[in-house]
Amino acid sequence: MQQFAMHVDGKDRLSSSGDWFETEDPFRGEPWAKIARGTADDVDAAVTAAHHAFTRGDWGSLTPTARGRVLSRVADGIAANVDLLAELEVRDNGKLLAEMRGQVAYLPEWLRYYGGLADKVEGTVIPLDKPGYFTFTRREPLGVVAIITPWNSPLMLLMWKLAPALATGCTVVIKPSEFTSASTIQLVKVMEEAGLPPGVVNVVTGFGAEVGSPLIDHPLVRKVGFTGSDRTGRHIGAQAARQLKRSTLELGGKSPNIVFDDADLDAAVNGVVSGIFAATGQSCIAGSRLLVQSSVHDEVVRRIVDMSRTARMGDPMDPGTQVGPVTTRPQYQKVLDYIDVAIEEGATVAVGGRPADRPECGNGWFVEPTIFTGVDNSMRIAQEEVFGPVLAVIPFEDEQEAIRIANDSRFGLGAGVWTSDISRAFRMSEQIQAGTVWVNVYRAVSFMAPFGGVKDSGIGRENGISAIDEYLETKTVWINT
Ligand code: NAD
């Protein structure tokens, strides 16, 4: 079995307790690696290393232009290691190799984009209302940033925080999910081989209470960047706030994918199916509620059911596979429990609704792509995040009803609208409560486009130019002339 130590100050670090925990391969349903089980002492060592790096000449006092160039070299280093990193991701989270390769191959763009912004962070001179002073602002990095990530897209969601943090001159301690630590450790090694100084990015592995919580509490940590469930996010946000530390919270969703009868139905059907079943539905932006206009309800349902029934399941490393396993054993059970809840609530199974019993799925944690019809938006299957391959179909009559149902959710992360009416597209994008609205496309993301949630889907935005502000403090300087 492979072993992965933590990574602190450019070196492997074993847990101060000497303990390890196992990480499982969701396709084989068995452990494949041991990960060091970190403690508060390991957190302290990692934060101390990050703090030294922040104040040291080879990072903290590098010119922003030089820092940007390092990030550009690091981007090239990652680009040369896409297969290595993508395969580790698949081993841990069971997502399709093609998707993980795509995600990892896209990571360097974040470093190039934010590396390019590093020397464009400018203060301002204030045209003051009082004579006799020269007053200006400086934009300064916060210091040590804690990044806590989930298991579903470990490297991509990490990079959304890591690249802007590094570009501003901050240093970082990462706590990856206990289910998917290996790729993060390897990523940081690749970054250092490409020229990132030791201590600038550190990784502590282990469990939320044992590692994540002391990391948030550490007095030298100035900000917490978190992606994960809204339950944990609430807890982490409150813990950070108690110490007056900033936090960015990217949380869950129950995103509506809304199909009007004037839509290009071929495109809409593809967008709906990939919107929920890509990544086996384990995506914060999964389009897990299909709102479909009554006049095309039966046709759309027939087509998505046909596509789902014939989806190829199996080994995520196999290029022919379309739907992989659920990433973790507890998540597998949670998805099956939600299927029972939906049936009890009176929803109808149009396809799927059970564990996959196919030879190509072996002992893995597979659930058949599942579509429920006859769903009312008040049901739990329409209100709670399943985070699995389960779609709830809800009919609507007109635009107003679609908006009402779409917004009748405590979440507000993403939303899809499928229509050929441009005016309707504008009206819908204005009225839907969500951080992102996609029209005639679904699940598109870019380093340039701000991303985040409203309502219970989170606080703050990642990606785009303004994300850099999340890692900067403004200092105002008054000079008596
Ligand atoms: P999770 O909340 O269970 O765990 C996320 C991370 O928090 C893990 O690293 C975990 O160890 C850590 N953690 C748990 N308790 C902690 C504590 N008390 N203190 C500090 N750290 C703690 O989430 P998950 O199950 O790994 O991920 C799935 C969730 O993430 C889903 O709800 C999904 O919607 C959400 N998600 C959101 C986005 C987004 O950008 N909005 C993206 C992907 C996933």
Automatic annotation (TrEMBL):
GO molecular function, one term: oxidoreductase activity, acting on the aldehyde or oxo group of donors, NAD or NADP as acceptor
Keyword Oxidoreductase set for record: yes
UniProt entry tagged with the keyword tRNA-binding: no
Domain Aldehyde dehydrogenase: 19-477
Domain of life: Bacteria
Keywords: Oxidoreductase
Positions of the catalytic residues: E250
UniProt-listed Gene3D superfamilies: Aldehyde Dehydrogenase, Chain A, domain 1 (3.40.605.10), Aldehyde Dehydrogenase, Chain A, domain 2 (3.40.309.10)
UniProt similarity note: Belongs to the aldehyde dehydrogenase family.
The protein's name in its UniProt record: Carnitine dehydratase
Source organism of this protein record: Nocardia mangyaensis
Species lineage: Bacteria, Bacillati, Actinomycetota, Actinomycetes, Mycobacteriales
